[in-house]
Amino acid sequence: MRDPTSSARAVSWLQSWDSQGIHRTGTAGDQAGADWLAREAASLGASVTIEPFSLSRIDPVSCWIESDGGRIEGVPVFDSPSTGPDGISGPLAIVPLSPWAVYTPDYHAMRRASDQSGLVIACQGPEPGLSLLNAERFREPYGCPAIHVAEMPRAEPTRMVSYYRRSRAEACNVVVTIPGHDPSRRPVVVMTPRSSWWQSTSERGGGLVCWLETLRALIAVPPAGDVVMTCNSGHELGHLGLDAFLDRRPGWDRADGAIWVHYGANIGASAGQLSIQSSDGPLRQAMRRALIAFGQPPGTMTPATMVPNGETRDIHRAGGRYVTLVGTNRLFHLPQDRWPLAVDVPAIERIAAGAAAMVRALAG
Q1: Is residue 241 assigned to a domain?
Q2: Mean pLDDT in runs of 10 for the chain (364 residues)?
Q3: Which of 58, 200, 311, 338 sits 20 to 30 Å CA-CA off 267?
């Protein structure tokens, strides 16, 4: 049965998220998102824990290329070395890439190529703009200095500056533990990332609504087994937050560890298609049935052998049990991913209701 108040909650949460500014890890917007989420979870009756972790934050200083006599501003590739303030001149490679390129082996081979002084990535998402690539190797920058620009330069660049400083910073995961009464049951982890390059209202907002609605459902009907809900920072920087979460819970990513429900990117993005990803047949079908029951069947069920791209990629590789919801999004990693046009609120409502019911059944 549809909850008549769920739409108002979703709208309020999405508007609040959109208003907080850029949510990049370790920045003021990231902290604003954590503070807001902790307040919302507490208002639902949860006991909230903040689990901090440290990082060496990149603070861009000067980032541009010279091309055809003009200067084009850009953004550093966050797992590449800095040029220093004076920059570099050719040879500079120019490569058009989408944000999904980081998940291909060719990308990393190209980044390591030794026949270039610098790399210019011309962003090629479905819509124009700075659709930045995630820094999968953030802890260990590699290859030559690299920069994102919003479009292909009209002429070959003659100079590039990608200069940044590093500073010690702190980010955090927002964690809620809902204890069960049956210690024999495996814990269930409900996870969603909350950091990103920009506001990312449709990229991250649908997952946050699912997370909060799941929390609300579990507080209303306490589970039989323990449920740990984590909303992680560090997503765009090689999953720093997930690593910090697992450092406190070693072994939870393995086959005999926790069962993971991951609310991934682009859930309920406008004109997007929802997918279920899992190598576990029963979890795949349980999520599918729950979504159908609430009027939002998945657009696709990805092959069970497919390795996910987000945080559950790490769980998959460790042999753990997981199910992921993830969508498509024409505004993926773009600054124009904003309220209200980027999101489909009724779809988010239905997905969140189905996902919450699935988790409640899984936890007993």
Answers
A1: yes
A2: 88 98 98 98 98 98 93 97 94 94 92 89 96 97 97 92 98 98 96 98 98 98 97 98 98 97 98 97 98 97 93 95 98 98 98 98 96
A3: 58
Q: Decide if 233 contacts 163 (C-beta within 8 A).
A: no
Residue 71 and residue 64: Cα distance in Å, rounded? 6
Q: What's residue 1's pLDDT?
A: 61
CB atoms within 10 A of CB 1: 5
Strands 48-67 and 146-149: unpaired
Q: Determine the angle formed by the axes of helices 345-363 and 281-293, rounding to 10 degrees.
A: 130
pLDDT at 314: 94
Distance of CA 75 to the CA centre of its chain: 19
Output the pLDDT for position 69.
82
Q: Do 73 and 32 fall within a single domain?
A: no
Distance CA 303, CA 290 (A): 19
pLDDT of residue 90: 78
Q: Are residues 184 and 252 in the same domain?
A: yes
Question: Do 277 and 185 have their domain in common?
Answer: yes
Assess contact for 83 and 189: CB atoms under 8 A.
Answer: no
Cα separation of 283 and 278, whole Å?
A: 7
Q: Tell me: do 207 and 333 sit in the same domain.
A: yes
The last residue of one of the domains, among 135, 167, 199, is 167
Q: Are 212 and 44 in contact (CB under 8 A)?
A: yes
- Domain CATH for 202: 3.40.630.10
- For residue 309, give its domain range: 6-56+169-363
User: Residue 364 has which token pair?
Assistant: 């007993």
